[in-house]
Amino acid sequence: MSERLFLDYNAGAPLLPEARAAALQTMQIYGNPNGLHEESRHASAVILRAREQVARLINAHPEEIFFFPSASLANYFLVTSFARVRASPFEHPSIIKSISESDSVRPTLVSHMLANNETGEIYNIEHFYSNYPSAKKHSDLSQAVGKIPIDIQKLNLDFATISSQKIGGGKGSAALYIRGGDSALKEVKPLKYRLYALGTPNVVAIASFGAAADKAYESAVRFNTKIQPLVAALHARIQSEIPNSVINTPVRSLPNTLNVSFPGAEGESIMLMLDARGVAVSTGSACTTTDGAPSHVLMAMYQDKSEAEAAELAHSSIRFSFSPDSPSDSVERVMAVLPGVIAQLRGFSTANPAANPTANPTASTNLNTNAPSTEAI
User: Fold this and answer.
1) Would you call 133 exposed, middle or buried from its count of C-beta atoms within 10 A (0-12, 13-18, 19+)?
2) Are strands 109-111 and 85-87 parallel, antiparallel or unpaired?
3) Closest among 159, 155, 189 to 174, alpha carbons compared
4) How far apart are CA 161 and CA 109, in angstroms?
5) 13, 22, 187, 250: which one has the fewest Cβ atoms less than 10 Å from its Cβ?
6) How, if at all, do strands 136-140 and 109-111 pair?
7) In angstroms, rounded to a whole number, what is the distance separating the alpha carbons of residues 331 and 275?
8) Is the pLDDT of residue 140 over 60?
9) What is the DSSP string of 106-118?
10) Phi, psi of 30 (to 5 degrees)
C-alpha cells in the first residue's frame, strides 16, 4: 500500500491550505503586537481578526477570546487559578494533573469536556454542572469544535478551551473563552496575572488558527454527511469479522471517532503493526501514549469491572479518528490488514481470548446498545 491512510485526526489535524496561506502571509508582519506604532498595529490587527474568526465559530464575542500557546497551557492556567476544583475523571491530563485540591462538595470551578478525545463520547455536561450551581463552569471543547456545531451561549459556560491544531490550524496556538472578557478577569485575579506571563503573542500561529476557524463550519458538515457513515461501516465490519472485539464508543459520540478494544492483543503492538502497513491510528490520547499506564478514560468507563478486566480493555484499545477528507475506501483499507494483525498478535499473546475464554468477559459489545455511557456523571 503506497499511500498512507491517516486515521489519527483527533491527535492533530493536517494543516489546512488556508491556514498555511495565512501563516505565510503573516510572516511578513514583523511588528510586536504589544507596541503602538504602525508596524505593531499591523500585527495587532491580525490578532483582532483571529479573535473575530474564533469567536464566530462558537458564537462568542471577540473580546472574550484569549490566545495561548497550547490548549494544555490554557487548561493549566485556568485550573490553577481556582482554589477548589471538581473535574470529571475523563478530562485531559492537563486538567487532572493541575488540580491541587479536588473538592466535590464546594468547588469554585467545575470542568467537564464536551466530547472525549479517546472514545468520542459527547457528554451531558449540563447534568454535571447542575450539581454545582454556585461554581464557575469550564469545558474543554478541543475535540468537539469543528466536528459538531458549538454555541457557547446555549452551553452557558464561563470558560472554554479550543485548540488550533485540532481544526487544521498551526500548532502553537489555542484559545481560552472567558465569558465577559476583561471584566470577568477582575474576578479571577490569578488568571489575570498569569496572562502576562504569556509574553509576545505568536502572531503567525494565531493567524493560522483564525483561518482554520473560518473553515471549521465546512468540516463539521463533511464529518456528519461523509465521515459518520464510514465510521458506522468500520464498526459493523469489525464486529462481524474480528471475534471478541469490544466497542468503547457509545451511540452519542463524535461522527469521526471509533474506539475499539481487542482483548488478547496489546494496543501499542496493534498500532505499530498497522503503522508498518500504512495505516496511522492511536492507542488513545497523544499526550499520554508514552507513560505506559492504561487509559484513565477507559479505566473510568469500566469502573464496574475488576481492575484487571478494565486494564485489559484499556491496554488493548485502538482509536480510529477520521479526518473530514478521509478517502471513501478507508474502511476497506483498514479491514484489509486489521483482522490479520489481530489474529497474529492474539496468537503470540498468553491472554488470547480464543485460548482462554475468561480473558474477555465482555465479548462483542454492540455500539448501539451496550457500550458504557457516562452521561449520568
Assistant:
1) exposed
2) parallel
3) 159
4) 14
5) 187
6) parallel
7) 15
8) yes
9) S-SEEE--SB-TT
10) -105, -5
pLDDT of res. 310 = 84
Residue 311, pLDDT score: 87
Confidence grade of residue 284 (pLDDT, cut at 50, 70, 90): low
User: Does residue 160 come out as left (phi exceeding 0), alpha (psi in the -120 to 50 range) or beta?
Assistant: beta
Q: Which residue has the cell 457509545?
A: 250
Looking at this protein, which amino acid is placed at residue 47?
I
Q: H-type helices in 242-319, by residue range?
A: 267-276, 296-301, 307-315
Quick one: cell of 255?
A: 461522527
DSSP state, 15?
A: P
pLDDT band at 142 (very low <50, low <70, confident <90, very high): very high
The whole model's pTM is what? Answer: 0.88
Q: How far apart are CA 175 and CA 75, in angstroms?
A: 10
Contact 97, 80 (CB under 8 A): no
Rounded Cα–Cα distance for residues 217 and 210 (Å): 12
Instruction: Provide the 3-class DSSP secondary structure of residue 25.
Output: helix
Cβ contact 166:215 at 8 Å: no
Q: Determine the average pLDDT of the residues in 39-61.
A: 93
Amino acid at 351: A
Query: What is the chain's Cα-based Rg?
Result: 21
Q: Per the structure block, which three cell numbers stand in for 4?
A: 498512507
Largest CA distance in the chain: 73
Residue with cell string 474502511: 331
Evaluate whether 80 touches 100 at the Cβ level (below 8 Å).
yes
* Cell (9 digits) for 170: 498551526
Any idea which residue has 465577559 for its cell? 180
What gap in Å lies between CA 13 and CA 7, rounded to an integer?
A: 10
DSSP 198: G
Q: Tell me, what's the pLDDT at 336?
A: 97
